[in-house]
Structures are given as structure tokens and as C-alpha cells.
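MBL fold metallo-hydrolase (Streptomyces nigrescens), 248 aa
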Amino acid sequence: MGGPTALLEIAGVRLLTDPTFDPPGDYPIGERKLVKTAGAALTPEEIGPVDAVLLSHDHHPDNLDRAGRAYTAEAPLVLSTAAARERLGGTVRALADGEQFTLPRPDGGTLTVTGVPAQHGPDGTEHLVGEVTGFVLSGAGLPTVYISGDNASLDVVRAIAERFGPFDVALLFAGGAQTPLLGDAYLTLPSDRAAEAAGLLGARQVVPLHFEHWGHFTQGSDSLVEAFRRAGREDRLRLLKPGEQIAL
């Protein structure tokens, strides 16, 4: 949909990542601001109901904006962090590292969502950037899917790969995000780390998210293509245009 927002349909279960639907403009965070440069490809009404929202974190407007909050408030289930549960309430359920939640599938099976770590910046910065989570999706006869959330650490990726890999699909929040809060440090994976993460995860296919539509992203689609080419993994990269659908 643009930014960190994507709709996944797995065995009849519909999941939406980090809902962001607000128009372009300035979005303050304390004394700072983030600048959104393009709107979402689809409206909440066009997306329709989902079985669950997978919310990496709630405290940054590029991951959950005003319209996203309204959508989340109506969702039957939101899986996120303990901090998000405290702030949002409602149907938000905290999913700790390694904790699992099962969703029923129309075919009678289940889809398992497991919480995994995410590190939204360099080591030792969680007190500045806040709590973030990622997700692993799995089930009998289903592909194994990793959703990174706003993670900048290859050590985190490596640990997740050792616990759950290899992966059929990885949705990596990329873009090499930077803000004055942490200077030239990355808050999400830059392109070269995204390509390295694909190798660590053993991911057959990689769908980058959250690398466009905001001014604080330092790297975009061109650098992703080049980084995956240099790593010899260009055949794994699936760059989606906003609103585009693919079967994986």
C-alpha cells in the first residue's frame, strides 16, 4: 500500500501490516517531524476487513497514523508490543518474543503468528526509539514468512534465522531510515544489509517495505536492486509498486 503497509492473504487469512492511510504532509514527533510524500494506494474501505493487524509499533506516525489508528480500533485483533497494548487498549494483544498466537483458517487448519525481536536503531538505543516487534508466520503446508518491522540489526536477523529459518518469504522494512534523533545511524535496514539479511534468512523471495513515501528514507528501489545484484540475490527480490498484487 506504500510505506510499511501491506496486505497478506495466507490460506484464506487476511493480515495487514502497520496501517498508514493519512495524506502527504508533516507529522510531528515531539519537537521533530516526519514528512510524508505520498498517500496509500488503497483506502481502508477498499482494503476491507482483515482477520488481524500485525503492528510493529504504535508510537511513530510512519508506522501507525491517525487513519491507521481508526482502522486498528475496528480490527478484531491487533498483535503488537506490550507498550502498544498499554497505549491503545481495545483488541491489541501483546506478543512477546517467542510467544505464539494461532488464527483459524477456512480450511480447518491454523496459521501461527510468533513474535520475534526487532531493533529500531543501533545497540543501546531502545530507550530513544521505543519498543518494536517483528513476526514469523507459519503453519502446516504453508510458507514460512518473516516480517521484520522496523529493524536495523543484522544480529537480530541472524538470531531469527537460526531459530526459525529458512524462510520462503521475507518482508524486510528497508530504506535506511535516518532522523536527527540518531544522526547518521540507521533506524531500518539500508539496502546492503537488506541483501545480506536475505542470505542469512535463506529467503527464497524478499518483498521490501517501508523504503518509500517518507522523507527520512535515505535509500530506495534503485539501491535495493543494486545491492541485491551485487550480492547475487537479484532473483529473490520482489519490488512491488503501491497497489500491485503478486502471488508468492
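Residues 154-164 form the longest helix (11 residues). The mean pLDDT is 94. ok done for today
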